[in-house]
Write a structure and sequence with these properties.
This protein is α/β, with parallel strands linked by helices. The chain has ten helices and 21 strands. The N and C termini lie far apart (80 Å).
Length: 397
């Protein structure tokens, strides 16, 4: 059987771009022609840069030996000096899935000076931690990250690979899936094992139904998972994991996209809505007059943040970064106060994980009350100021 990767000698000009692009040092130039050795993991970095299309990868559709694929992998997102909380959520779920399958949990971490976080990943469920460190991996780059992870997947053959459905994960996971020739289930809100396969549950048709998806013929099974829908595990202090260094070689000249400037949208000291214990969200009704200023006063008294429904975002009342719902952010605070939101599934799918939900709406038949522990029928411009005043009174202000 022919090798899955080949070099057309007649086309190859020996330019060396493929050598610079290969992060696994698997290509050399011999007699002015590219030669690929056994270190190749079929990551396709070379095919993307070859100017004459001399390198081809043939991904044959053959029956896959599913038994050769083991372990549950989690892409651990790192940023702002720590491992992101969603990484721990995925590790908790991965531990649950791996236990049912009798397999191990592996975390994959890329970046610059990130090895120090391996211990935290181990305490939250990782049995192995693959660490790829390079100064050029310090900022996210689609080409570099997807190439390294695709190579690891091709080499180690995981059974399941989970990514966070963050901005980074939503960009990275589809690129990897396309590179290795697999499907991907996006924005999952539930994961379980069914007949030895990963049962992936996600909203479909605008959130009107929940779809269950199985991948019986290919491996690994890949999915992105919405943040704040899976509980974080209880960290086991002192728990250890095998840390595996992944050697990466990157030629700066092979990088197609360069980061020129990074702009943060939140003010200094501001908290992200997905990390707050209290969220006060406004809908269409809050778009009138100074509705969001009223909500902000309540949020300040509760040491919380203000969120918004999609209609408020579309009306330019609040930035996209605080949108709660299917096309926004999923939150799971201890207290969720929702004002002037009807209760359509497109919004409720983003806040169902909240521990306590208090709804304020002037329509006694509003669907939002079905999702709430406490409901107040009334005008938010009367109810919220009264609640704020009572909280201040009880705090002795």
């Amino acid at each position: 059987m022919a090798d899955p990767i080949s070099v057309n000698i007649e086309k190859c000009t020996g330019c060396g771009l493929c050598v610079k692009a290969c992060p696994f040092d698997a290509i050399t130039i011999v007699d002015k022609k590219a030669k690929i050795d056994e270190k190749c993991v079929l990551c396709s970095a070379c095919t993307q840069v070859c100017p004459v299309e001399a390198i081809k990868i043939e991904r044959r559709e053959v029956k896959v030996d599913l038994s050769a694929y083991k372990d549950v992998w989690v892409f651990a997102e790192v940023g702002e000096g720590c491992a992101k909380g969603v990484s721990f959520e995925l590790l908790g779920k991965a531990s649950e899935l791996a236990k049912q399958l009798g397999q191990h949990v592996c975390a994959v971490m890329l970046g610059h000076d990130v090895k120090k976080y391996a211990g935290t990943l181990a305490e939250n469920g990782a049995d192995k931690v693959f660490v790829a460190e390079h100064e050029l991996l310090g900022h996210y780059n689609t080409d570099l990250y997807s190439t390294v992870i695709s190579g690891l997947i091709m080499k180690h053959k995981p059974n399941i690979v989970l990514f966070p459905a963050t901005k980074l994960g939503r960009d990275l996971a589809p690129r990897i899936a396309a590179t290795v020739g697999l499907g991907l289930t996006a924005d999952c809100t539930g994961l379980s094992i069914h007949d030895g396969m990963l049962l992936q549950t996600r909203p479909a048709f605008g959130g009107n139904i929940m779809a269950d998806i199985l991948c019986p013929y290919t491996r690994p099974q890949m999915a992105t998972v919405r943040p704040n829908v899976m509980p974080k595990p209880v960290a086991q202090k002192g728990r250890k994991a095998e840390v595996i260094d992944v050697p990466v070689k990157i030629d700066p000249k092979s990088i197609r996209v360069h980061l020129r400037e990074q702009i943060k949208t939140c003010v200094m000291g501001g908290r992200k809505i997905e990390e707050s214990d209290v969220v006060v969200t406004g809908g269409r009704a809050a778009c009138e007059n100074d509705g969001f200023e009223v909500l902000q006063k309540l949020a300040d008294e509760l040491n919380g943040v203000v969120g918004a429904s999609r209609v408020a975002i579309d009306m330019n009342k609040k930035p996209k970064s605080v949108q709660v719902g299917q096309s926004g952010i999923t939150v799971s605070p201890k207290l969720y106060v929702v004002c002037g939101v009807s209760g359509a599934i497109q919004h409720t799918v983003g806040m169902r994980g909240s521990k306590m939900i208090v709804a304020v709406n002037n329509d006694p038949n509003a669907l939002i009350f079905e999702f709430s522990q406490y409901g107040i029928v009334g005008d938010l411009f009367q109810v919220i100021p009264a609640l704020t005043a009572e909280i201040r009174k009880r705090k002795g202000k």
